[in-house]
Amino acid sequence: MTLDDDLCTRPATELAAMVRGREISARELLDAHLERIDRLNPTVNAVVTLDADGARAAADAADAALAAGEDVGPLHGLPVAHKDTHATGGMRTTWGSPLHAETVPLRDELVVARLAAAGAIRVGKTNVPEFAAGSHTFNPLFGATHNPYRHGLSAGGSSGGAAAALAAGLVPLAEGSDMGGSLRNPAAFCNVVGLRPTPGRVPTWPAAMGWSQLSVQGPMGRTVADVALQLSVLAGPDPRVPISLSDDPARFAAPLPERLDGLRVAWAPDLGGQVTVDPAITAVLAPSVAVFESLGAAVEEDCPDLSGADEVFGTLRAWLFESSFGEISRRSPEKVKESIRWNAEMGAKLTGPDLARAEQLHTTLYERMVAFFERYDVLLAPTTQVLPFPVEIEYPTEIAGVHQDNYLEWMRSCTVISATGCPALSVPGGFTDDGLPVGLQVIGAPRADRRVLEVGHAFEQATRFGERRPPV
In this protein, which residues make up the domain named Amidase (predicted)? Predict the structure, then answer.
């Protein structure tokens, strides 16, 4: 491993301190990452748009600001890649669709703007499934993203390019979004960390459905502390976003504990019988119970009542898909993939009573989760039900002999949690005997984002699974 390679696999927290302390310049840090992108990205296919010249100019400006003694942000000089569904002013944003192959937005959306305001250096865009639909990253424009731990296997999705870029050391920070697992699933597949925050924690703007709580944006990183640092600049209220939370985001950057004395933990290896999980995943995660007990936590096998969560997620997702893709699916069906057409068609069939029932179920589900978290501090579960699968497959159609009906079924370990409104963190949970990563999902009470970060960090420090780098 070269010195530059070592630099490109260090935590973002360390790199930020090195830049601020003038141990390394932002330009040197950027050039190390650009060299690695040039060398490794053709194999991984994680970064699909690159602006090396623009990034170099920004890095030089960052160094000049530091030399002039200007106040700098917490991410000053750190390279960052943006999900290709997030609008970047002056940089191509395709949503993984031929319909937007040449689209160049005029301005940054909020998540991009907040990272820039914190000093991050925009390098490029990361690959996504078409319109971020599905947890496997491939599209007609750029093809499939490969898992850095095993070429030929999926990196997950829809933030698969972001997770693969982090794992391969192409960038120290990335961001994504999560409706049904799109921050958590790829984090698990690629042995990195992804946080689905409480809805409103990271405001999404602009948004056609500003009151919706199903899809959220959030941070990804190689360590929990990196994710917490990024959350401290992404979170915070915005008056244009009706569900945005007003808590001070600075608290997320405070030091994280390494002990969990007195923590009350519920362990649900199949979410109370709600999901089918590949036995190889269960085998990898089973020792986690002893790790938490060694950290001072009390662990019981228990699970909240998640009945109705499938209907809530399925109905609200279909409604959103009809709103976003119904017209194009009917007018030019050949221009969107079949799974999008199917989901939009499901939405078109919904009635007012269907939506009312989903919202009623949503309310009672939320109340049950609040009651559950009066007895426990966190809930642990597998992030994914399957291991990374071949990139040629759109989605797994069978898990442990159980047929999966559609492209959403195999992600239910994440989708049912999305419906609860709870924050959920995927942290590296170990490896199979043949070296494939497995993610542990840490779920907290509504708005307890800081708690899931604390728990994930303590587990991470005790196990060090995230330090196992891929063969690339």
Answer: 28-453
